[in-house]
Design a protein that fits this description.
With 379 residues, the protein is largely without helices or strands. It has a domain at 32-105. 12% of the residues lie in helices and 4% in strands. It has helices at 2-25, 74-77, 118-121, 253-256, 260-268, and strands at 79-80, 97-98, 199-200, 222-223, 239-241, 291-292, 312-313, 332-333. It has a 4-stranded mixed beta sheet, with no helix packed on it. Strands 1-2 form a two-stranded parallel ribbon. The radius of gyration is 23 Å and the shape is globular.
C-alpha cells in the first residue's frame, strides 16, 4: 500500500513540475479588448467589508475614488515592482514601468515594444517622456510645431491640460492620457473597444494602442503584436503605417494620414522637415522621418526586419500579420525606428547606445548600422 501511495505521489509531483515548466515557458497572455472579472478593474462604491478598494500608484489602499469606478490609476495598472514581470498579475495589462529595477525582458532589456518608464523615474529625464513630474531639462516639446503649440496648447508638453476640458479630461496634468486616449467625448472607454485586428485602423476599434487625435477619423493605424513584443523576432513584432508626404513643413494627420509619425508630429512637428526652403534638398537638416529607404547603396542591404530598428509600411491593407521582410524603395524610416516612446536606458529615448555606434569598426553592428550597412566597415 505504501509503495502504491508513493507511486501516486510521484505521479502528482511529475504533473506539478510539468505544469510549472509549462507555465514559466508560456508567453504573456494577451487580450484584444479587456476581458475577465469586472472587479479586477472596477469597484462600485470603493468599499468592501469596511475597507477601501481603490489603490494609489504604489498599490496602497486609498479612500479617494476614481472616475469610471476604477481601482487602479494608469500607473497602478501598468506597473510592477518586479523587474522580470511584464504583465499585471490581476488585470493582465502590459507593464510599462518596472518600479524597483530596470526591466530584464524585451529587445535589449528595454521592456515591451514602447520601452519603459523606469529610467526616467530614476531622474534621467533625457531617457524618457516624463509623465510623473515636471521635466528638469525641457519646458516644451523639442521640435515643437509653432503653428499648433501656442501658449496653453495641449501639444506643448506633458503637463499642459487640454483647454477646454474634452475627451473626458479636466484641467489637470495628463501624463499617460496625453498620448493614450482612454475616453472620447462623450466618454466611451477604449479599453472595451473590439481591437481584435489584425489591422487596427478605426475609431470603433480604439485605434492602434489608443493613439488618437481630436477627431474620430484621426488616429494611428497598425498591427498590434499579441504580447506587446515580449517575444520578438523578424516575424514577431508590431507593424506601423507610414507615408512619405510633404517634408517642407510640419505634418500631422492631415498631411501624413493615420500614421505613427503623424501622431508624433502633433508635438514634434518641426522634426519632420527635410529642408525649410527646397523640397528634396540635400543635405538633410534632420534625420529623415517617414522617408523611403533608398533602393540602392548601403540601404538596399536592410532586407530582414529587425524589431530593434522597425520600419513603416506605405500600406497595411489586407495584411494578416507581421512581415519578416524590409523592402528598400518602399518601406520607410520613421520616428520609432530610432526611439522608444516610453523610455529607454539611453539618452533621447534611443533604442541603442549612440556612443557605441562607431564608424569604421566592424565589430559594431545593429542600431544605426541596420540601415547604414556600410558605415561600420573597416576603411
Amino acid at each position: 500500500m505504501i509503495a502504491t501511495e508513493r507511486k501516486v505521489l510521484n505521479i502528482y509531483l511529475c504533473i506539478i513540475v510539468l505544469f510549472s515548466i509549462f507555465t514559466l515557458c508560456t508567453p504573456l497572455n494577451s487580450y484584444a479588448k479587456v476581458s475577465g472579472v469586472c472587479s479586477n478593474c472596477h469597484t462600485m462604491h470603493n468599499s468592501q467589508n469596511g475597507s477601501a478598494m481603490t489603490r494609489d500608484d504604489s498599490g496602497n489602499l486609498t479612500a479617494t475614488p476614481r472616475d469610471t469606478l476604477l481601482i487602479y490609476s494608469c500607473i497602478g495598472c501598468h506597473s510592477t515592482t518586479d523587474p522580470a514581470i511584464a504583465q499585471h498579475p490581476v488585470t493582465d495589462a502590459p507593464i510599462v514601468y518596472n518600479i524597483n529595477g530596470a526591466p530584464t525582458y524585451g529587445a535589449g532589456s528595454l521592456g515591451l515594444a514602447g520601452g519603459n518608464f523606469y529610467w526616467v523615474a530614476q531622474g534621467s529625464d533625457a531617457k524618457g517622456h516624463n509623465i510623473f513630474t515636471e521635466d528638469s531639462n525641457l519646458t516644451e516639446a523639442p521640435g515643437k510645431w509653432t503653428g499648433c503649440n501656442g501658449a496653453g496648447s495641449c501639444h506643448m508638453n506633458l503637463s499642459e491640460a487640454i483647454p477646454p476640458a474634452s475627451f473626458g479630461f479636466s484641467h489637470v496634468r495628463q501624463g499617460c492620457t496625453k498620448c493614450h486616449m482612454i475616453a472620447s467625448d462623450p466618454p466611451q472607454g477604449y479599453h472595451h473597444r473590439d481591437d481584435t485586428g489584425p489591422l487596427i485602423d478605426s475609431f470603433s476599434e480604439g485605434w492602434y494602442r489608443f493613439l488618437t487625435g481630436h477627431n474620430t477619423d484621426e488616429g494611428v493605424t497598425g498591427i498590434e503584436d499579441a504580447d506587446w513584443q515580449y517575444t520578438f523576432g523578424s516575424n514577431d513584432h508590431n507593424e506601423y503605417l507610414g507615408s512619405s508626404g510633404n517634408k517642407s513643413a510640419p505634418a500631422g494627420f492631415s498631411a501624413l494620414g493615420n500614421t505613427m509619425t503623424a501622431y508624433c508630429c502633433g508635438c514634434h512637428g518641426e522634426f519632420h522637415i527635410q529642408d525649410t526652403t527646397v523640397v528634396g534638398a540635400s543635405p538633410w537638416l534632420r534625420h529623415p522621418s517617414d522617408a523611403v529607404l533608398p533602393v540602392s547603396g548601403e540601404y538596399s542591404a536592410y532586407t530582414t526586419y529587425d524589431p530593434v530598428t522597425p520600419v513603416a509600411r506605405p500600406s497595411l491593407s489586407g495584411w494578416s500579420g507581421p512581415s519578416n521582410t524590409v523592402t528598400p524603395g518602399t518601406d520607410m524610416v520613421m520616428c520609432l525606428s530610432c526611439h522608444k516612446p516610453h523610455g529607454s536606458d539611453y539618452p533621447d529615448l534611443l533604442r541603442w547606445d549612440y556612443a557605441d555606434m562607431i564608424a569604421g569598426d566592424d565589430t559594431k553592428s545593429g542600431g544605426c548600422f541596420n540601415c547604414h550597412t556600410q558605415k561600420n566597415q573597416t576603411p
